[in-house]
């Protein structure tokens, strides 16, 4: 096997169909979970979002453990090396979860939407700095279009709240770091997709439960009066199941695509939700500025999707990888040339002896 073939074996090229379906799966999963969480938290007025998150982590642990015992999936058994391989992902996830809950209470919905879009350029910067990706100007401009469109869509509703700004931008940083960390940890040489999901949930569920206990969220959840309501209980369980499916879809999208593509897929999903809200729901206040901004966002998201699907994922690999390939090829050529020269010398010596 040649060096090039070894290099390709280490970095498999996923099909366009797998990349597109994984992004679509993430968008649909996120959309459905938003609807379910809205029903549970808003319509039934369940008092503890954190307890709902604990339920989602618990379902994730149970499903993956049973699947491993039945040998449907495989991931490493627990060892002393697991925390070292996994961290700091659980801490980043908890920071993302807590800052996300706090940020929605500090800002208006338009301003919150605008600032959350900055998770996309932050992810782009982190991929360039940490994963050493190389993105062309066309993709960078499409990302910028999404940000500009979000700002235009918000219009004059950009109220200033310093505390809210800081919390949302922290949430953006945690969200971007979570995607980058997942992309690194799902390497089969590390923990793999299922190992990351299982052990991340294991390490997250205990501190989250402690935090919810001391903040009173857990007590509110236990004292909730509608636990015997079959409709509420069914939606609560489905929401917990969808929490696992969403986590899996995020890992899958990062595996087949990249953290940046996962972020853009989420942005496109939010834009589609906004489009649906224009015609369904009855609480939308029509504004040409808002519609114009949404169209800019969608144009940026679609152009990014087209550019990504038309490209080879290895086109964005670090420059050093290409240099290493060339160096490896030159060494191989040098070895071949050396062998040829040595063979020629042997033949000349034999001819002289004759």
Any chance you could write out the topology, listing elements then pairs?
Layout: H1 3-10, H2 16-43, H3 49-69, H4 81-86, H5 89-103, H6 109-116, H7 119-130, H8 137-154, H9 162-185, H10 192-215, H11 217-222, H12 230-256, H13 259-279, H14 288-310, H15 319-353
Helix pairs in contact: 2-12, 2-13, 3-10, 3-12, 5-9, 5-10, 6-8, 7-9, 7-13, 8-14, 9-12, 9-13, 13-14
Q: What features would you highlight for this structure?
A:
354 residues, mainly alpha, globular, single chain, membrane, UDP-N-acetylglucosamine/UDP-glucose/GDP-mannose transporter isoform X1, disordered C terminus, transmembrane helix
Largest sheet: none
* Number of helices, where a helix is a run of at least 4 consecutive DSSP H or I residues: 15
Q: Give me the Rg, rounded.
A: 25 Å
Structural class: mainly alpha
| Outline | globular
Instruction: Give helix and strand order, one letter per element, not per position.
Output: HHHHHHHHHHHHHHH
What's the structural domain tally?
1
* Portion in helices: over 70%
- Provide the β-strand percentage band: under 5%
As residue ranges, the low-confidence spans are: 1-10, 320-348, 350-354
- Average predicted confidence as pLDDT: 78
Strand element count: 0
Distance between the termini: 39 Å
Describe this protein's structure:
It comes from Microcaecilia unicolor. InterPro entries: Sugar_P_trans_dom, TPT_transporter. The protein has 354 residues and is mainly α. It has one domain. 78% of the residues lie in helices and 0% in strands. α9 crosses α13. The N terminus and C terminus are likely disordered.
């Amino acid at each position: 096997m040649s060096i090039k073939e070894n290099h390709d074996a280490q970095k498999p090229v996923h099909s366009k169909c797998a990349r597109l379906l994984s992004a679509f799966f993430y968008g649909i999963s996120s959309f459905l979970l938003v609807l379910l969480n809205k029903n549970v938290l808003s319509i039934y007025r369940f008092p503890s979002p954190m307890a709902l998150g604990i339920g989602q982590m618990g379902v994730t642990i149970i499903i993956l453990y049973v699947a491993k015992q039945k040998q449907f999936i495989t991931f490493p058994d627990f060892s002393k090396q697991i925390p070292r391989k996994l961290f700091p992902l659980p801490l980043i996830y908890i920071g993302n979860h807590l800052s996300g809950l706090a940020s929605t209470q500090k800002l208006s919905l338009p301003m919150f939407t605008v600032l959350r879009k900055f998770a996309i350029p932050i992810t782009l910067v982190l991929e360039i700095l940490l994963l050493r990706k190389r993105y062309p100007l066309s993709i960078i401009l499409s990302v910028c279009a999404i940000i500009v469109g979000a700002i235009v869509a918000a219009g004059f509703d950009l109220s200033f709240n310093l505390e809210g700004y800081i919390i949302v931008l922290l949430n953006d940083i945690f969200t971007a770091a979570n995607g980058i960390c997942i992309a690194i940890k799902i390497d089969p040489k590390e923990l793999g997709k299922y190992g990351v999901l299982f052990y991340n949930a294991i390490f997250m569920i205990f501190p989250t439960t402690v935090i919810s206990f001391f903040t009173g969220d857990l007590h509110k959840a236990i004292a909730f009066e509608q636990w015997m309501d079959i409709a509420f209980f069914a939606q609560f369980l489905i929401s917990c199941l969808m929490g696992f499916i969403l986590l899996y879809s995020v890992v899958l999208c990062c595996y087949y695509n990249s953290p940046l593509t996962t972020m853009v897929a989420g942005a496109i999903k939010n834009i589609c939700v906004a489009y649906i809200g224009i015609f369904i729901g009855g609480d939308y206040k029509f504004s040409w500025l808002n519609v114009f901004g949404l169209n800019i966002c969608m144009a940026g998201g679609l152009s990014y999707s087209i550019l990504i699907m038309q490209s080879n994922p290895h086109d964005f690999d670090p420059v050093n990888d290409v240099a290493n390939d060339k160096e490896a090829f030159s060494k191989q050529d040098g070895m071949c040339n050396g062998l040829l020269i040595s063979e020629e010398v042997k033949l000349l010596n034999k001819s002289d002896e004759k």
